[in-house]
Design brief:
The chain is an all-alpha fold and 118 residues long. The protein contains six helices and no strands. Among the domains are: 2-35, no CATH class; 55-100, no CATH class. The chain is elongated and about 75 Å long.
Length: 118
């Protein structure tokens, strides 16, 4: 880092390297935070709601989908809520969990016109 080793200001070091001074300031602050035991690239503080579904729920979901490959989201949600008393979760949150944590995707059901199968 030019700021630490060469004695440059953050702005001068940013111009020398060819990046935005504000970006250089952010990188410098992350570098300082890294020296305090935090890893660079990792969020310093977590925000938002804690996840509702844990690893045990994920394992149950994967097993259920393996046994019922044609299951729809509503059936998966009903089975999950029946297996774990007191658990409530929306379809969107369940779908996001299946995509992000389980690596599963579901095909979207489409309504067909009335005479489609005739």
């Amino acid at each position: 880092m030019l700021v630490n080793f060469e004695g440059y200001s953050k702005r001068k070091a940013a111009i020398e390297v060819g990046i935005n001074p504000r970006t250089a300031c952010d990188y410098y602050n992350r570098y300082i935070a890294d020296e305090k035991g935090q890893t660079m690239g990792k969020k310093i503080e977590t925000r938002g709601r804690k996840p509702t579904l844990k690893q045990v729920h994920t394992n149950h979901l994967v097993d259920y989908v393996e046994k019922n490959p044609a299951a729809i989201l509503e059936n998966i949600k009903d089975d999950l809520c029946a297996a774990f008393e007191g658990l409530t979760i929306g379809k969107t949150a369940l779908h996001n969990h299946l995509k992000e944590k389980c690596g599963l995707t579901l095909k979207k059901l489409e309504k067909q016109p009335e005479g489609y199968w005739i």
